[in-house]
Amino acid sequence: MGLFEQSQIPLNAAIKAMKLDPNAAAIIEQPERTLEVHIPVRMDDGTTQVFTGYRCQHSTVMGPAKGGVRYHQNVNMDEVKTLAFWMTCKCAVAGLPYGGGKGGVIVDVTKLSERELEALTRGYIDKIAPFIGEKLDIPAPDMNTNAKIMGWMMDEFSKIKGRFEPGFITGKDLSMGGSLGRTAATGRGVVTAAIEALKVRKIKAKGATCVVQGFGNVGSWTAKLAHDAGLKVIAISDVFGAIYSEKGINPYKLSEYVATSPQHSVKGFKGTKEITNADLLAIQADVLFPCAMEGQITKANAAGVKASIICEGANGPTTPDADEILKEHDVLVVPDILANGGGVTVSYFEWVQNLYRYFWTEEEVIEKQTDMMVKAFKEVYELSQEYKVTMRVAAYISALKRIAVAMKFRGMY
Ligand code: NAD
After folding, report:
1. Set 102, 172, 224, 232: catalytic member
2. Is 189 in the pocket of ligand 1 (CB under 6 A)?
3. What pTM does this model have?
4. Which residue of 64, 130, 223, 341 has the lowest C-beta tally within 10 Å?
């Protein structure tokens, strides 16, 4: 089963539980527009290489499509469509005035020079420019794209339009209208959601144990902010391996170590013992934070999960058949479209600040983000109780309720 098909399983469960009008369901099940582009780039050796890219606008019912651009050798249309669908639902769960979109380019960034990467980025924007804009579709960073790439995109789009266009993209550097608090925002939201989940499970946050899979943007900030909230981080992993310490790991010191270690890996950090990524998922802990990538908790390993709570920092880390097993084992899963919505929430704040040309302090950003996340968590948890469904299905119910009303008033069904 492809990723998009898999992603429809909890959606269909929500449609059934809330008895959504089938006419509304039919609209939400398909993306509005998916674009495939081919981008010629003059390489440093004088040859021309043609790269394939995508942009999918899954929904613009609630507002402009919103979602990142991923650069990866495994990017494909099915993945981009799925990520765009998750963005539609994520924005609706968070109560943002956005639809969902996503983009991607098939490229191994490690094989490009800085000049080639810039040429590819500008070429991608040239191809999708007629379909994006601050009131139409607003890109952002995702895997292997960052503030520097957002800067090139903004510059290229502003040149095409012949005017300053900061609001067409988020995740920019502060110098170009980025928002304070954006870098840590996804991890901050993940930790806020976990603290609410710990309350549901009547576990005190202070001293609660947790495990973090992935130590990139989301994983490292989740680990740091969990540590700040008094949780004990006992294991952390990255693509190279995993480390464990019963006494707890200081994620700030680990970050410094990773920055200077030869492989830029968590492996070998002082005072920890090496374990495997498979061992990490089966550790007895109060919270497991999967913050790496899709499809990590599966039918094969879900029964071995001993955490009381899974709080999903990554998109799609749990497969639908794993969800069934976790439900039987009474693991509380805080789903991705709720738990990792902090990133797009602060992207929304960035967009608002760009439209107003008036900027907020970091404290204001954090306060507003935390309020929105706690509210969204409570709404989803209450829906899960009302409909007697998992929090994942409840999150889709929360999203569909908002989207269906907007579709009705637009006269779409
Ligand atoms: P990143 O590239 O910065 O970090 C990914 C981390 O996962 C790295 O430490 C990498 O070594 C590790 N990793 C990769 N494969 C692994 C494996 N098989 N086992 C263990 N670790 C592995 O990416 P990121 O921005 O932190 O994104 C991580 C996930 O969170 C993705 O699913 C992304 O779509 C999602 N997400 C990111 C944001 C954001 O604001 N960055 C927002 C919402 C969701």
Report:
1. 102
2. no
3. 0.95
4. 130
Q: Is 296 left (phi over 0), alpha (psi -120 to 50) or beta?
A: alpha
Beta strands 33-42 and 209-213, pairing class: unpaired
- Both tokens of 410, joined, read 């637009």
Structure tokens at 257: 């170590």
CA distance linking residue 209 with residue 245, whole number of Å: 11
Lookup result for tokens 């499509």? 65
Consecutive H or E run containing 234 = strand 232-238
- Over the chain (413 residues), what is each successive 10-residue block's mean pLDDT? 94 98 95 98 98 98 97 97 97 98 97 98 98 97 93 98 95 95 96 98 98 96 98 97 98 98 94 97 98 95 98 96 98 98 97 95 98 98 98 98 96 96
Question: How far apart (Å, rounded) are the C-alpha atoms in residues 152 and 122?
Answer: 7
Q: What is the DSSP letter of 205?
A: S
Q: Strand pairing partners for 318?
A: 297
Report the chain's terminal Cα–Cα distance, integer Å: 30
**What is the rounded CA–CA span in Å between residue 64 and residue 168?**
10
Distances 170 to 44, 151, 159, 177, 354 between C-alpha atoms, Å: 29, 9, 17, 9, 9
